[in-house]
Amino acid sequence: MIFRLRAFALPVALLLVVPAATHQDDPPLRGFTTANAKIQREWEAKFRAIPDPARMREAMRRLSLRPHHVGSPYDKENAEWLRAQFASYGFDATIERFDVLFPTPLTRVLELVAPTRFTAKLEEPALREDPTSDQKSEQLPTYNAYSADGDVTAPLVYVNYGVPADYETLERNGISVKGAIVIARYGGSWRGIKPKVAHEHGAVGALIYSDPRDDGFGAGETYPAGPFRPKDGVQRGSVMDMPTYPGDPLTPDVGASAGAKRLERADAVTVMKIPVLPISYADAQPLLAALSGPLAPAAWRGGLPITYRLGPGAARVHLKLAFDWSLKPLYNVIAKLPGSTNPDEWVIRGNHHDGWVNGAEDPVSGAIAQLEEARAFGELVKQGWRPKRTIIYAMWDGEEPGLLGSTEWVEQHQDELRRKGVFYLNSDTNGRGTFGMEGSHALERFANEVARDIMDPETNKSVGARERASRVVGGNKEARTRSDLRIGALGSGSDFTPFLQHAGVPTLNVGFGGEDDGGIYHSIYDSYYWYTHFSDTSFVYGRALAQAAGTMMMRVADADVLPEEFGNLSETARGYIGELKSLRDNTAKEIEELNLQLAEGAFAMVNDPRRPTVPPKPQPPAPVLNFAPLDNASIALDSASSRFEKAYGALPSANAMAASLAPVNALIRQSDQVLLLPEGLPRRPWYRHSLYAPGYYTGYGVKTMPGVREAIEQKDWKLADAEIVRIAAALTRESDLITRAAALLEQATGAKPVP
Ligand SMILES: [Zn+2]
Question: 700: CA distance to ligand 1 center in Å?
Fold first, then answer.
């Protein structure tokens, strides 16, 4: 009854369904008329009362009971169990299958063969305290997915984090890794960057270890006594070249369905070209201790009780790896709650369900919140609630190997997403602490508004207030004055990437964290025991995540006008342009200073004859870049945003009909789509967003306005000028869209058009 009334005559429905939860002085709700805001707040209050920590605990115990990696029996069982849960909540729930390249290890051998012999254990031992740690027969061994097969014996070289800057330091020390096996420590970048850069410098193999200073006893008490990585703990993980494109390596840009055309494995550029293996710090120590040669720079020295040296010298390593390269099935769980009035507008929520082993923290801690949101929606539907737009709850498979499930789904449905995609909300791991918000900056205001309405379980303040306080305490003065907390820009590392950076769906990624630390990431110790002893032990932050994410979904699903606000986007873009100008100027100064030092012969004079270093090469001066196209586009974006915001201001008191607002929403939902670059980014066309991408050499870390920023970093000045023009064109498309939406909104609300 209520649902229908709400569908056809919005204002009238106000009076009929009012339980007493709201207050006269409630602030306006972005996207709602005052009348509808009242209804919305009541449904939200009902919703937020439902998520239950005890049910989350039980769901985590169940989902992390056995190893559930891609292709494992329990991964399939979990998908079927999740589908059944969603169906029992009243969702139209199905499993969507894809078949992807996911290698699993057949052979793993790592030995130090000179100057002494040592055979690496490559095993994580079971622990008496942790009941699920002894499931050896079902556990994936420790390995890096998409490493090449290989059998190499070569000198060992220590390369710190193994990022490009580290190779410049090695070069300055006259050290080449050509024909060598490199050993890098985890951290500093996406793990796939390490073998990629090593291969670019001629290495024939790579090892990645968890150094105890960052990730072990140097950080705190180790497991099981404490949360940090024990000596035999290993971080499994994909080394796919995800910054080139994520997803199934054999089917870039198309869904890996049964009949899809697949590349030959040899032609799949995201598969590594050299063998690479992750190891524990217990296995790494004898290898690093065997290194001779120059002392490692102070910043490269970790927490092991050895002298860190660079090599190469007498230390030689034998690395032999072989993999089963057969295709494996992915089981995405897709659960739909069809919209009442706008069924062709999709509001999507996602969290992955696959783990590397038992995956309690990663990903189950986020998945259980998503499950409780869906159960609560089922309860509201029983009470008469029905979302206007279609809500889709997705549990992705194959996130760990390289965002496989979400990417294949987006590639498979990209035409529909282009026509129907309104919002994508992602989560992954969840713990205790403050509320992290990242994503499309046109949703910054919206995210802040929700954060104001969710209570933090430890302080009874809003999660927004707690996040603000933590920033102020952290020295961020702006956080005290700026009305909206800035949200982070998205690089990569979870399932938001295909939605935002390939399909251009307005996207947010959320989760709590920062209070607990630990070192069980991607190991057998990421278990129910670990989580219930060292993380959100009472699942109250699980409930807070369900409340926050569920509220976001309800508001977008029922908003009269979609909640984008473009002033923050415009200000953020202007900030990026300023950063790019400084980056160009700082680079120019660095080159000038370097050439001056070379001309003065300074390097020769400070060279230590016993430890000679190779002087850097002179560089051509940095030319002036023409930022005018970006500056002009930024000015236009600013004025379009303020015109839109004025029109938006009239909404609460307006008596606008849904029909007249529909064309406004049809434009607003494309606000990330028009920021896409049709040809994609230089050397990686799969990434199309002009403002956000993971760095080509960071993998996780975001590069904003990546086309220009990375061209400047690479000192490719011609490319930088060309990318400035492309991004300016994208911003201009955005201003045009916003201006058109503002004009339609003025008509719909009767607001006076701004001359
Ligand atoms: Zn994850």
Answer: 13
